[in-house]
Amino acid sequence: MSDLTPPASASLPHYVNAAHFDPRTIEELTPAQERIYLASQWQLMWWKFKRHKVAVWCGVFLIWLYLVAIFAEFLAPYNLDARHIEKIYHPPQGIHLFSKDGFEGPFVYGSDYRLNMDNLKREYTVNEDRVHALRFFCKGEPYRMWGFIPGERRLFCAPEGEHVFLFGTDRLGRDMLSRIIYGARISLTIGLIGVAISFSLGIVIGGLAGYYGGVVDLVVQRIIEVLQSIPSIPLWLALAAIMPVTWSPLLVYFAITVILGLLDWTGLARAVRSKLLALREEDYVLAAQLMGADTSRIIGRHLVPGFISHLIASATISIPTMILGETALSFLGLGLRAPVTSWGVLLTEAQNINVVALYPWLMLPVLPVILVILAYNFLGDGLRDAADPYK
Question: I need a labelling partner for 308 at 20 to 30 A (CA). Which of 32, 241, 265, 300 fits?
Fold first, then answer.
C-alpha cells in the first residue's frame, strides 16, 4: 500500500456551503440575458407567442368575436326574429359620412321600392334626398340579455320610424346582420363544447392504450378502426333520422354537440397513443412508478405535458372542424333547425341558386365562417410554436 493512501478508518474532509446559490454570480449577465435566464416557462411561451404577429391579431379577432356573441342582444340593431314585411329582400345599406349638403356624420340613405314584373325581383333604389342619421346607445326594441336580463339599449339604431339594414334582409324581412350576430353564439360555442368532449375522450382512451399497450391497445385500435370506417354522410343521415322532432331546440343543439364530439376523438386518440408508446419508456416515468404515482397522475402530470404543443395544434384545428361540421349539417338540413339560429341555419336561405342570383347578400353568413377558420389556423400556428419556446 502506498504511503499516500489514507488509512481505511480515516474520513475524507467534506464541506457543504450553506449559502444561497445565485446563478448570476457565475458570470456577468446583461439585463436582457438576465431577464431571459431567470424567466419562467410561461413567460418564455408568452414572449415567443408575441413575436408571431399574425397569431396575436387572430387571437384578438377571436376574442372580439366571442365578446360579440356574449353581448349579441346589445350589439344587434334588431331582435332575432324581428320582421319588416315592407322591406323583404332589402339590399345592404352602406354607411356614409358626407351627403350632397356636406358632413352629416354616420348615416344611411333611404330607399324607394318597386317590383320588377319581368323577373319578379324586388328592386330598391337609393334615394339621396332621404338621409337617415344613425343613433348610438339608443333605445330600441326591448330584449332580455341571455334570456333573463331585461334591456332596451342598443349600440346603434335608425331614426324613429326608419330602418337600417347594413347586411340586407331575408325573405321574411329579418335583418341579416342581427341574425349573424345571434348565430355566432351557437356556431362559436359548439366548437368549444365539441372539442372539450373529443379531447377528454381522446386523451383518456388514447392515453390508456399507449400506456398499458397489449390487450388494451388492441381493443382500442379495433374500436377506432370501426368508427373511422363508417361513412360520414350516411351516419349523419341516420343520426338526423333518430332525433325526435319533439325535442326542444336547446336539446337538439346539445345532441349535435355531443355527436360531433363523439365522432372526432379517434384521430387524437391515435396521436396520443403513439406519443405515449415512446414516452412511457423514459426514465422519469419509471421513477414516478417507483415513487408510487398512479396511472392517472403519470399520464396527466408527466406524459401529456411532453407533447402539449401537439395537443394545442390539434385543438385549434379541431374547433374550426367542429364549426364546419355544424355548418354543413345545418345547411343540409341534418343538424340544427329553425328557430335555432346558427351560421349554418342562415345559409339554408341560400340553397336556391336562383334566389342567390337575385339576392347575393344571403351568402354573407359564409364570411364569418371563413374568417373564423383562418383565424383559428393562424392562432394554432403561433400557439404550437410558443408551446416549445426552446426551439
Answer: 32
- Cα–Cα dist 342/365, whole Å: 9
Digit-coded pLDDT (tens) for 281-290: 788 888 888 8
Contact 187, 342 (CB under 8 A): yes
Can you tell me which residue has the cell 408575441? 50
pLDDT tens by residue, 143-158: 888 878 888 889 998 8
CA distance 301 to 159: 59
Domain extents in the chain: 93-164, 178-386
The residue type found at 60 is V
Backbone angles phi, psi at 315, to 5 degrees: -65, -45
Separation of alpha carbons 23 and 25, rounded Å = 5
- Residue in 212, 192, 229, 235 with CA at minimum distance from that of residue 334: 235
> DSSP character for 87?
G
Confirm if 182 and 339 have CB atoms less than 8 A apart: no
CB neighbours (10 Å) of residue 100? Answer: 8
Is residue 282 within 8 Å of 305, Cβ to Cβ? Answer: no
Question: What is the three-class DSSP state of 107?
Answer: strand
Tell whether pTM > 0.85. no
Quick one: three-class SS letters along 294-360?
CHHHHHHHHHHHHHHHHHHHHHHHHHHHHHHHHHHHHHCCCCCCCCCCCHHHHHHHHCCHHHHHHCH
